[in-house]
Design brief:
2 domains; mainly alpha; 261 residues; single chain
């Protein structure tokens, strides 16, 4: 006999004024401590922690107010997904080349997330309903953005710090693009490691949000596991595409020159 599943519940309680006060205190304390640790440990990004927390509060508040209206229309849903893609692409592009051709960030982010999202919808595994499409597509876009940023930063750093290896490759007759790939490809591939580790250890080290959210929403363990499995393997594909395109763009000099003197 199958067990009785959990009734719908929530991970965080914010009922009433007291709940909102507790939420504000926790957010402020965590962000402030993160900023303090970064500052005292000379890690940098201290102010970035505070600004990121503030932006998250404002953006989640606005999205929370708008999301029900957005989900009521496929046109609005398509517009919201376009906005997510644009923000993710600009964020990744500016991380890699804030003063130059940052618009190339659209290539790995969009080409990584969009085809995989369409494939999942065509497979029939994801219900063709806005309430199902938006969160899963959002997860894929976020994974594509992160992979693009990490791969690009690693590749650019490798080309800057291993200039001699790049010149050695040129000296034996390799083309500039091939020389850059020889130096940067392995470093860029490290961007795949977090996703691989998360997939390998899921259920043993971490219980991802999609899995827990489905359970707390009243879904069966099989349904929750199926959703999380689809999300994880889709993310592996999204990130592989994004990293491949990113390292090719870096090697071709689109984010910045392959090598700095």
């Amino acid at each position: 006999m199958l067990p009785k599943f959990l009734p719908a519940t929530t991970l965080v309680s914010v009922e009433g004024v007291g709940g909102l006060v507790r939420l504000a205190i926790v957010v402020v304390v965590c962000a402030a401590l993160a900023a303090l640790i970064n500052h005292r440990g000379r890690l940098g990004h201290g102010l970035d922690d505070l600004s990121a927390a503030l932006r998250a509060c404002l953006q989640l508040g606005v999205v929370g107010l708008l999301i029900l209206g957005v989900l009521g229309s496929w046109w609005l849903t398509a517009g919201f997904i376009t906005l997510m893609l644009s923000v993710a692409s600009v964020t990744a592009g500016r991380r890699l080349n804030p003063k130059g051709q940052w618009w190339w960030g659209f290539a790995p982010v969009v080409l990584g997330a969009v085809p995989v999202a369409f494939g999942l919808m065509l497979s029939g595994l994801i219900p063709r309903e806005t309430i199902a499409v938006v969160p899963i597509v959002g997860i894929l876009i976020g994974g594509s953005m992160t992979a693009t940023t990490l791969a690009g930063k690693r590749a650019l750093d490798a080309l800057r710090t291993r200039h001699g290896e790049y010149e050695a490759a040129l000296s034996i007759g390799l083309m500039p693009r091939d020389s850059a790939l020889l130096v940067a490809r392995a470093d860029a591939a490290l961007a795949l490691v977090p996703g691989l580790d998360q997939t390998r250890t899921v259920g043993l080290v971490t219980l991802p949000g999609a899995f827990v959210g489905m359970l707390l929403g009243g879904a069966s363990p099989l349904q929750a596991a199926a959703v999380q499995l689809v999300v994880l393997v889709a993310l592996l594909l999204v990130q592989a595409i994004a990293v491949l395109i990113t390292v090719q763009l870096v090697a071709a000099g689109y984010f910045s020159p392959p090598v700095t003197e």
